[in-house]
Backbone:
């Protein structure tokens, strides 16, 4: 079993296609606004909001 990937991002909206090869999946859009992180339901890729990222609406 492969360890899920993790990415630091600077926006509250990301898209994931699962990477390459067998891990690929239909492109989905994910929203980090709830917990400043979100896990892709397809591939388990974890997206975390980068510390200090400028996000409109925060604060
Ligand atoms: Zn994914």
Residues:
């Amino acid at each position: 079993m492969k360890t899920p990937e993790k990415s630091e991002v600077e926006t509250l909206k990301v898209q994931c296609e699962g990477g390459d090869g067998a891990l690929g999946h239909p492109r989905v859009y994910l929203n980090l606004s709830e917990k400043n992180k979100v896990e892709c339901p397809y591939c388990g890729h974890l997206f975390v909001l980068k510390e200090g990222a400028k996000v409109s609406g925060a604060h």
